[in-house]
Amino acid sequence: MKVLLTGGAGFIGKHVLRELLARGHDVRVLDSLRPDVHGVEKRVALNEVELQVGDVRDSGAVARAIEGVEAVIHLAAKVGLGVDVYDLPDYASSNDAGTAVLLAEMARQGVRRLTLASSMVVYGEGFAQCPEHSAVTPAPRLEAALAAGQFEPPCPICGRALGPMLVDESTPFDPRNAYASSKAAQEYYAANWARITGGSVVALRYHNVYGPGMPRDTPYAGVAAIFTSALRRGEAPKVFEDGRQRRDFVHVRDVARATVLAAEKHGNGVRAYNVGSGTPRTVGEMAAALADALKGRNPEVTGQYRLGDVRHITADSSRLRNELDWRPQIEFQEGMSELANVQS
User: Fold this and answer.
1) Residue 41: its pLDDT value, please?
2) Is-catalytic flag, 179?
3) Which pTM value belongs to this model?
Protein backbone atom coordinates (compact mmCIF):
# COMPACT_ATOMS: atom_id res chain seq x y z
CA MET A 1 0.00 0.00 0.00
CA LYS A 2 0.92 3.64 -0.37
CA VAL A 3 0.66 4.81 3.25
CA LEU A 4 0.74 8.25 4.84
CA LEU A 5 2.30 8.01 8.31
CA THR A 6 1.70 11.11 10.42
CA GLY A 7 4.14 11.59 13.28
CA GLY A 8 6.53 9.23 11.53
CA ALA A 9 9.62 11.00 12.87
CA GLY A 10 8.58 10.42 16.48
CA PHE A 11 9.33 7.66 18.97
CA ILE A 12 6.65 5.18 17.97
CA GLY A 13 6.53 6.56 14.45
CA LYS A 14 10.08 5.57 13.56
CA HIS A 15 9.44 1.99 14.66
CA VAL A 16 6.18 1.85 12.69
CA LEU A 17 8.04 3.24 9.68
CA ARG A 18 10.66 0.48 9.89
CA GLU A 19 7.93 -2.15 10.12
CA LEU A 20 6.06 -0.71 7.14
CA LEU A 21 9.21 -0.69 5.01
CA ALA A 22 10.15 -4.20 6.11
CA ARG A 23 6.74 -5.39 4.94
CA GLY A 24 7.13 -3.73 1.53
CA HIS A 25 4.87 -0.71 1.84
CA ASP A 26 5.46 2.63 0.11
CA VAL A 27 5.51 5.29 2.84
CA ARG A 28 5.23 9.07 2.99
CA VAL A 29 5.79 10.76 6.36
CA LEU A 30 4.16 13.96 7.59
CA ASP A 31 5.69 15.36 10.77
CA SER A 32 5.79 18.86 12.24
CA LEU A 33 9.09 18.17 14.06
CA ARG A 34 7.72 20.12 17.01
CA PRO A 35 10.45 21.34 19.39
CA ASP A 36 8.97 19.82 22.56
CA VAL A 37 9.42 16.39 20.96
CA HIS A 38 12.50 16.70 18.76
CA GLY A 39 14.39 19.57 20.40
CA VAL A 40 14.92 23.05 19.03
CA GLU A 41 18.05 22.28 17.05
CA LYS A 42 17.43 18.66 16.15
CA ARG A 43 17.13 17.66 12.50
CA VAL A 44 15.47 14.41 11.56
CA ALA A 45 16.69 12.33 8.62
CA LEU A 46 14.49 9.51 7.36
CA ASN A 47 16.04 7.26 4.76
CA GLU A 48 14.08 5.57 1.97
CA VAL A 49 10.93 7.66 2.44
CA GLU A 50 9.55 11.05 1.54
CA LEU A 51 9.39 13.34 4.58
CA GLN A 52 7.03 16.30 4.37
CA VAL A 53 7.46 18.75 7.24
CA GLY A 54 4.07 20.09 8.19
CA ASP A 55 1.41 20.21 10.87
CA VAL A 56 -1.80 18.18 10.73
CA ARG A 57 -3.66 21.37 11.65
CA ASP A 58 -2.54 22.90 8.34
CA SER A 59 -5.07 21.86 5.69
CA GLY A 60 -2.68 22.69 2.85
CA ALA A 61 0.10 20.52 4.28
CA VAL A 62 -2.36 17.69 4.89
CA ALA A 63 -3.78 17.93 1.37
CA ARG A 64 -0.31 17.62 -0.15
CA ALA A 65 0.59 14.71 2.15
CA ILE A 66 -2.57 12.71 1.42
CA GLU A 67 -2.39 13.02 -2.35
CA GLY A 68 -2.09 9.59 -3.94
CA VAL A 69 -2.12 7.49 -0.74
CA GLU A 70 -4.37 4.50 -0.05
CA ALA A 71 -4.30 4.49 3.75
CA VAL A 72 -3.35 6.71 6.68
CA ILE A 73 -1.70 5.73 9.95
CA HIS A 74 -2.25 8.68 12.28
CA LEU A 75 0.28 8.89 15.11
CA ALA A 76 0.89 12.67 15.21
CA ALA A 77 -0.20 14.00 18.60
CA LYS A 78 0.80 15.94 21.67
CA VAL A 79 1.45 13.23 24.26
CA GLY A 80 1.84 13.03 28.04
CA LEU A 81 -0.63 13.93 30.77
CA GLY A 82 0.09 17.65 30.61
CA VAL A 83 2.08 19.85 32.92
CA ASP A 84 -0.69 22.21 33.99
CA VAL A 85 -4.08 23.55 32.92
CA TYR A 86 -2.45 25.87 30.39
CA ASP A 87 -1.68 22.79 28.26
CA LEU A 88 -5.39 22.28 27.54
CA PRO A 89 -5.57 24.43 24.38
CA ASP A 90 -2.52 22.69 22.87
CA TYR A 91 -3.99 19.22 23.43
CA ALA A 92 -7.34 20.28 21.95
CA SER A 93 -5.69 21.96 18.98
CA SER A 94 -2.91 19.45 18.21
CA ASN A 95 -4.90 16.27 18.77
CA ASP A 96 -8.57 17.08 18.20
CA ALA A 97 -8.48 19.87 15.62
CA GLY A 98 -5.54 18.22 13.86
CA THR A 99 -7.42 14.94 13.55
CA ALA A 100 -10.52 16.76 12.26
CA VAL A 101 -8.47 18.48 9.53
CA LEU A 102 -6.92 15.14 8.55
CA LEU A 103 -10.29 13.38 8.37
CA ALA A 104 -11.85 16.15 6.30
CA GLU A 105 -9.04 15.98 3.76
CA MET A 106 -9.22 12.18 3.63
CA ALA A 107 -12.91 12.54 2.77
CA ARG A 108 -12.15 15.09 0.03
CA GLN A 109 -9.54 12.87 -1.59
CA GLY A 110 -11.43 9.60 -1.17
CA VAL A 111 -8.99 7.92 1.22
CA ARG A 112 -11.03 5.41 3.22
CA ARG A 113 -8.60 3.52 5.49
CA LEU A 114 -7.48 4.99 8.82
CA THR A 115 -5.39 3.45 11.60
CA LEU A 116 -5.53 5.72 14.64
CA ALA A 117 -3.09 5.71 17.56
CA SER A 118 -5.35 5.98 20.59
CA SER A 119 -4.46 5.21 24.21
CA MET A 120 -5.49 3.22 27.25
CA VAL A 121 -5.94 6.55 29.05
CA VAL A 122 -9.44 6.84 27.53
CA TYR A 123 -10.61 4.31 30.15
CA GLY A 124 -9.58 6.33 33.21
CA GLU A 125 -9.42 3.85 36.07
CA GLY A 126 -11.40 1.31 34.06
CA PHE A 127 -13.19 -1.25 36.22
CA ALA A 128 -12.25 -2.66 39.62
CA GLN A 129 -13.68 -5.52 41.68
CA CYS A 130 -15.61 -4.74 44.84
CA PRO A 131 -16.24 -7.73 47.17
CA GLU A 132 -19.85 -6.57 47.56
CA HIS A 133 -20.75 -4.74 44.35
CA SER A 134 -18.70 -6.69 41.75
CA ALA A 135 -17.34 -4.58 38.88
CA VAL A 136 -17.44 -0.87 39.63
CA THR A 137 -15.88 2.26 38.18
CA PRO A 138 -13.61 3.84 40.82
CA ALA A 139 -14.41 7.48 41.47
CA PRO A 140 -11.74 10.11 40.71
CA ARG A 141 -9.21 10.25 43.51
CA LEU A 142 -9.44 13.29 45.76
CA GLU A 143 -6.40 15.44 46.42
CA ALA A 144 -6.97 15.30 50.18
CA ALA A 145 -6.79 11.49 50.09
CA LEU A 146 -3.67 11.50 47.95
CA ALA A 147 -1.98 14.02 50.22
CA ALA A 148 -2.74 11.70 53.14
CA GLY A 149 -1.10 8.77 51.34
CA GLN A 150 -4.41 7.07 50.55
CA PHE A 151 -3.67 6.08 46.98
CA GLU A 152 -6.09 3.23 46.36
CA PRO A 153 -9.48 4.43 45.10
CA PRO A 154 -12.31 2.91 47.19
CA CYS A 155 -15.58 1.50 45.95
CA PRO A 156 -17.76 4.51 45.08
CA ILE A 157 -20.77 2.77 46.66
CA CYS A 158 -19.53 1.27 49.92
CA GLY A 159 -16.00 2.60 50.32
CA ARG A 160 -14.40 -0.85 50.56
CA ALA A 161 -11.03 -1.70 49.06
CA LEU A 162 -11.10 -2.75 45.40
CA GLY A 163 -9.31 -5.54 43.58
CA PRO A 164 -7.73 -5.25 40.12
CA MET A 165 -9.47 -6.07 36.83
CA LEU A 166 -8.27 -6.04 33.25
CA VAL A 167 -10.07 -3.66 30.92
CA ASP A 168 -11.34 -4.82 27.56
CA GLU A 169 -12.47 -2.70 24.64
CA SER A 170 -16.09 -2.56 25.86
CA THR A 171 -15.03 -0.59 28.95
CA PRO A 172 -16.75 2.84 28.91
CA PHE A 173 -14.62 5.93 28.34
CA ASP A 174 -13.78 7.88 31.49
CA PRO A 175 -10.92 10.25 30.52
CA ARG A 176 -9.36 11.97 33.53
CA ASN A 177 -6.77 14.36 32.07
CA ALA A 178 -6.28 16.56 29.01
CA TYR A 179 -4.44 13.96 26.96
CA ALA A 180 -7.06 11.31 27.72
CA SER A 181 -9.89 13.65 26.74
CA SER A 182 -8.17 14.48 23.46
CA LYS A 183 -7.67 10.79 22.63
CA ALA A 184 -11.32 10.00 23.33
CA ALA A 185 -12.32 12.90 21.08
CA GLN A 186 -10.08 11.58 18.28
CA GLU A 187 -11.88 8.24 18.40
CA TYR A 188 -15.29 9.91 18.28
CA TYR A 189 -14.30 12.10 15.31
CA ALA A 190 -12.90 9.07 13.48
CA ALA A 191 -16.06 7.03 14.08
CA ASN A 192 -18.19 9.93 12.82
CA TRP A 193 -16.02 10.17 9.69
CA ALA A 194 -16.34 6.44 9.06
CA ARG A 195 -20.14 6.52 9.27
CA ILE A 196 -20.40 9.47 6.88
CA THR A 197 -17.86 8.29 4.30
CA GLY A 198 -18.10 4.51 4.58
CA GLY A 199 -14.46 4.45 5.59
CA SER A 200 -12.79 2.03 7.99
CA VAL A 201 -11.17 2.94 11.30
CA VAL A 202 -9.06 0.81 13.59
CA ALA A 203 -8.28 2.54 16.90
CA LEU A 204 -5.28 1.11 18.71
CA ARG A 205 -5.38 1.83 22.43
CA TYR A 206 -1.70 1.66 23.27
CA HIS A 207 -0.75 0.91 26.85
CA ASN A 208 2.54 2.12 28.38
CA VAL A 209 4.91 1.99 25.44
CA TYR A 210 8.66 1.87 26.09
CA GLY A 211 11.82 1.06 24.18
CA PRO A 212 14.76 2.56 22.31
CA GLY A 213 14.27 6.09 21.07
CA MET A 214 11.98 7.23 23.88
CA PRO A 215 11.95 11.03 24.25
CA ARG A 216 13.92 12.12 27.30
CA ASP A 217 14.43 15.26 29.34
CA THR A 218 11.10 16.88 28.41
CA PRO A 219 8.08 17.48 30.67
CA TYR A 220 6.14 15.01 28.52
CA ALA A 221 8.57 12.06 28.60
CA GLY A 222 7.28 8.66 29.67
CA VAL A 223 8.06 7.23 33.07
CA ALA A 224 10.63 4.73 31.74
CA ALA A 225 12.59 7.53 30.07
CA ILE A 226 12.40 9.68 33.20
CA PHE A 227 13.74 6.83 35.35
CA THR A 228 16.52 6.05 32.86
CA SER A 229 17.63 9.68 32.68
CA ALA A 230 17.81 9.90 36.48
CA LEU A 231 19.86 6.71 36.74
CA ARG A 232 22.32 7.93 34.12
CA ARG A 233 22.82 11.10 36.14
CA GLY A 234 23.71 8.93 39.14
CA GLU A 235 20.40 9.69 40.86
CA ALA A 236 17.81 7.35 42.30
CA PRO A 237 14.67 7.09 40.16
CA LYS A 238 11.88 8.83 42.04
CA VAL A 239 8.73 6.72 42.12
CA PHE A 240 5.47 8.53 42.83
CA GLU A 241 2.83 7.37 45.30
CA ASP A 242 3.86 4.04 46.86
CA GLY A 243 5.15 2.50 43.63
CA ARG A 244 2.40 -0.11 43.55
CA GLN A 245 0.31 1.44 40.80
CA ARG A 246 -0.19 -1.14 38.05
CA ARG A 247 0.46 -0.59 34.35
CA ASP A 248 0.93 -2.72 31.24
CA PHE A 249 4.37 -1.96 29.78
CA VAL A 250 4.58 -2.98 26.12
CA HIS A 251 7.67 -2.75 23.91
CA VAL A 252 7.60 -0.29 21.03
CA ARG A 253 8.53 -2.91 18.42
CA ASP A 254 5.56 -5.03 19.51
CA VAL A 255 3.39 -1.91 19.21
CA ALA A 256 4.76 -1.20 15.73
CA ARG A 257 3.93 -4.73 14.58
CA ALA A 258 0.39 -4.43 15.94
CA THR A 259 -0.06 -1.08 14.19
CA VAL A 260 1.03 -2.31 10.78
CA LEU A 261 -0.97 -5.55 11.09
CA ALA A 262 -4.07 -3.51 11.89
CA ALA A 263 -3.46 -1.21 8.92
CA GLU A 264 -3.10 -4.21 6.61
CA LYS A 265 -5.93 -6.39 7.87
CA HIS A 266 -8.74 -4.09 8.97
CA GLY A 267 -10.75 -2.74 6.05
CA ASN A 268 -14.37 -2.48 7.20
CA GLY A 269 -16.21 -0.50 9.86
CA VAL A 270 -14.86 0.72 13.19
CA ARG A 271 -12.90 -1.52 15.54
CA ALA A 272 -10.82 -0.83 18.65
CA TYR A 273 -7.96 -2.93 19.99
CA ASN A 274 -6.04 -2.77 23.25
CA VAL A 275 -2.32 -3.09 22.63
CA GLY A 276 -0.62 -4.38 25.77
CA SER A 277 1.74 -7.11 26.87
CA GLY A 278 -0.95 -8.84 28.91
CA THR A 279 1.30 -8.91 32.00
CA PRO A 280 0.61 -6.17 34.56
CA ARG A 281 3.62 -4.69 36.36
CA THR A 282 3.94 -1.99 38.96
CA VAL A 283 5.74 1.28 38.35
CA GLY A 284 8.04 0.31 41.21
CA GLU A 285 8.94 -2.93 39.46
CA MET A 286 9.87 -1.01 36.32
CA ALA A 287 12.08 1.38 38.30
CA ALA A 288 13.80 -1.55 40.04
CA ALA A 289 14.37 -3.38 36.73
CA LEU A 290 15.98 -0.31 35.16
CA ALA A 291 18.11 0.33 38.26
CA ASP A 292 19.34 -3.26 38.11
CA ALA A 293 20.07 -3.09 34.37
CA LEU A 294 22.01 0.15 34.77
CA LYS A 295 23.70 -0.87 38.04
CA GLY A 296 22.29 2.34 39.48
CA ARG A 297 20.83 3.52 42.74
CA ASN A 298 17.78 1.84 44.19
CA PRO A 299 14.45 3.55 43.47
CA GLU A 300 13.20 6.12 45.96
CA VAL A 301 9.49 5.95 46.70
CA THR A 302 8.48 9.56 47.30
CA GLY A 303 4.77 9.58 48.06
CA GLN A 304 4.39 12.43 45.56
CA TYR A 305 1.44 12.33 43.21
CA ARG A 306 -0.13 13.97 40.19
CA LEU A 307 -3.84 14.62 40.38
CA GLY A 308 -4.47 13.56 36.77
CA ASP A 309 -2.87 10.13 37.20
CA VAL A 310 -4.99 7.01 37.54
CA ARG A 311 -4.04 4.37 40.08
CA HIS A 312 -4.28 1.21 37.98
CA ILE A 313 -4.94 0.56 34.32
CA THR A 314 -4.05 -2.74 32.66
CA ALA A 315 -5.21 -4.29 29.41
CA ASP A 316 -7.02 -7.31 28.13
CA SER A 317 -5.46 -7.58 24.67
CA SER A 318 -7.11 -10.87 23.71
CA ARG A 319 -9.13 -9.28 20.89
CA LEU A 320 -5.94 -8.19 19.15
CA ARG A 321 -4.38 -11.62 19.67
CA ASN A 322 -7.41 -13.51 18.41
CA GLU A 323 -8.50 -11.33 15.49
CA LEU A 324 -5.15 -10.14 14.10
CA ASP A 325 -2.96 -13.06 15.25
CA TRP A 326 -0.62 -10.71 17.13
CA ARG A 327 1.54 -11.75 20.06
CA PRO A 328 4.05 -9.65 22.01
CA GLN A 329 7.53 -10.96 21.39
CA ILE A 330 9.73 -8.97 23.79
CA GLU A 331 9.73 -9.99 27.45
CA PHE A 332 9.81 -7.33 30.17
CA GLN A 333 13.31 -8.05 31.50
CA GLU A 334 14.74 -8.24 27.98
CA GLY A 335 13.10 -4.94 27.11
CA MET A 336 14.35 -3.21 30.25
CA SER A 337 17.90 -4.41 29.61
CA GLU A 338 17.75 -3.19 26.02
CA LEU A 339 16.39 0.18 27.05
CA ALA A 340 19.17 0.62 29.57
CA ASN A 341 21.89 -0.28 27.06
CA VAL A 342 20.55 1.57 24.02
CA GLN A 343 20.14 4.89 25.82
CA SER A 344 23.79 5.04 26.86
Assistant:
1) 46
2) yes
3) 0.91
